[in-house]
Amino acid sequence: MATGKFFQEVEVPQQKSQIQNHLLFPAVLSPAATDSSVCVLEDAIRAEKAWLECLLNERGAILFRGFPVTSPDDFNDVVEAFGYPEAIYVGGRASRTKVVGRVYTANECPPHMGIPFHHEMSYVPDFPTKLVFFCEEEPGKGGETPIVLSHIIYERMKEKHPEFVARLEEHGLTYIKFAGDEDDPSSFTGSSWKSAYKTDDKSVAEERAAKLGTKLEWMGNTAKVITGPVPAIRFDKESGRKTWFNSLSASYSGPASEKGSNRNTTVELGNADPIPDDAMEDLMKILEEECVAIPWKKGDVLLVNNLMVLHSRRPLLKPPRRVLASLCK
Description:
This protein is globular. It has helices at residues 38-47, 49-59, 72-82, 150-160, 162-171, 193-197, 202-211, 248-251, 277-290; strands at residues 7-10, 16-19, 23-25, 27-31, 61-64, 98-100, 103-105, 115-118, 130-137, 141-142, 147-149, 173-179, 214-219, 222-230, 234-236, 241-243, 265-269, 301-305, 309-313, 316-318, 322-328. The chain has two domains: 7-148 and 294-328, Double-stranded beta-helix (4-Layer Sandwich); 151-287, Double-stranded beta-helix (4-Layer Sandwich), CATH 3.60.130. By secondary structure, the protein is of the alpha+beta class. The strands form six sheets. Strands 1-4-5-18-9-21-7-6 form an eight-stranded mixed beta sheet. A four-stranded antiparallel beta sheet has the order 13-14-12-17. The chain is built from nine helices and 21 strands. Helix 1 packs parallel to helix 3 and helix 4 (150-160) crosses helix 5 (162-171).
């Protein structure tokens, strides 16, 4: 079992043995000493940065549990201790509000709504490589943040739908979103074009979108945001594996019989072919079968390698719940 000078690895029931040598996913670290404090945690992160980096690249995610991280300010200090540059949320699809420093709300859509699996900002070239989540208020029931190793999804989908995966690798994906000029908090992809591109000037928004490989087409004050084709499968150099690096399940608008619903996003293959409904049905099942959903506890900090791991959100069944986030390059 992995351990450092300041940390000890512990086990929780929800972990899975999904990695070579039967290593558990994710890694869960608790204080090695009883006199832990936020300052001790910050110093420990700095002192054991190399070891934590190796552990993150080996496991894909690390849950820090049992440390006295109690406030957004504490969390911001912990994020700063890791020393990763901040990833600016330009072109993002979620409605998010700055809380303090580098700390933001994770997604402001209603908590009873689930959020499908995705790699954060997989539709832009300058996506964050690491995500950090913090549980300020633990859920009464539900509201987990399931995570899953992306290479496992790639391997299982390639086995189940080899032709579809081959087309994904050849053509990539094109994402389409309809963004108004005001945030829509009822949608998990509800950011306005003004919020997404940090401007209320259409021409500036177009310029900033273009730098991300995105085209804006205007319909009054609504922007049709077209991104792609962009890769849907990536090669992770650290692990030497191909990963299911996309936001397909979060952008898919449902089977043909359900299309035309109030979803503001859609996705197609890079050659404009539709996404096969049977492949999506199997993808959703595989994601649920392979994921790990550890119930949040107050003070939890979850560090995620965005290149290796997809994440989602389960509906909140009993309030409260407050999970904050920070994105890192």
